[in-house]
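seq as requested:
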Amino acid sequence: MPSFGRGEIRMAALTMIGMAILLQSTALIWYPRLPFHHELGSDFMAFYTAGTTLNRLPPAARLYDPELQQRLRTEIMPDADQATRLPYLYPPYIAAAMSPLARLPYRWAFASWLVIGGALYAAGLYLLQSCCRLGQHRHTALLLALSFTPFLFEAWGGGQISALAFSALAAALWLERAGRPFAAGLCAGLCCYKPQVFLVLAGLFVVARLGRLVAGALVSSSVLAGLSFLMLGRAGAATYLRFMMQYGTAVSARPSAWPLHKFVDPNAFFHLILGGDTWIGRMLFYLAAAAALLLAARAWARYRRASQDQRMLCWAGAMPVLLLASFYAPVYDATLLVLSGFLVAGVVYRNGRPETVRSFEAMVLLVYLGAIVSQPVARVLHVQVLTMILAWSAVYVFSLRASLGGCRAARRPAAKPESQKRTADAPALPVASRVC
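struct tokens:
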């Protein structure tokens, strides 16, 4: 990755990783006391209480009882901030997957999840680096990916499950490159626990006319939806849908009720800038989301005729678009930018054009540092810089894809005139015949 000051960059990344491990280790040791006002596991508590609900208080429909979840949270962690609400917002099969961890004491459940989440992320990185072949840049890329703050402090340290979507999309990409589109679709369908991500991704597959990918995604998502219905029953499924619709309405209509500095979607961005929920902000959000979708759809419509590098850039550009087209994109979902970075790096370093390499390395530095400062800046200045960086990165990736196509067209040799073709194709005469 960035060749300027590579040793310093690796040291900074290792320092970030060491700080995160120290913070989590201290919180685990001091539990239930909360060092530095840091609540152990943060968002993991929602998954733990959901698993506890399935274990102790069935039926599954009670997962979507906010008062019950808050009461369980108070029992598990009495010193936690009671003003903070952590509703469970995921399908019931996620809670079922968490129920074995919920049988452990909370401290050991979260420690186990740190191992599981780290393993999922590492598996995704392994698949990515096997696709991209970064050569001498591989170790720096891995360190930057591991120390990327949306993953390290928000997803991994905060107990979120973004590593699941990350590894599923990395597997989908790896399988698609291996010529197994249906299996790739099956993996992509695992992201249906995030409907805002899955629907945009499935729409891009349809635009690209990737029938087997679409079929695979529909099969896996339908199986998971059926499993959810079996767990909840008809009344429970209605309760779940009603709860999610109410939550979505609350987020879109009253964003000020949420910590907006922790969101990177355009809805939160314009709410921060304009100081409230206004019709201008809503219109700007719709325009920004539509522009992002059109930018991605234009590139994906040429997917079947594109080269391998151009296809990789289509996937890379889709990652920021998934966040820009959403009305609900917490900062930990920016972990998907790591996938984008690996794919672009594979194309840029393989082509080796110096000016392209320099612009890409500057973009990597901007994304990495922007992710670090985005939340403090949003708190103080009411501007979420990471949202602007997302938009810039989407434009950059799709522009790079277009320039790559133009460069290849320029390198293609010009067609010879017909007379030259006939002369070139004519059999060479013996020397004696030429003299005569």
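Confidence is low (pLDDT under 50) at residues 406-436.
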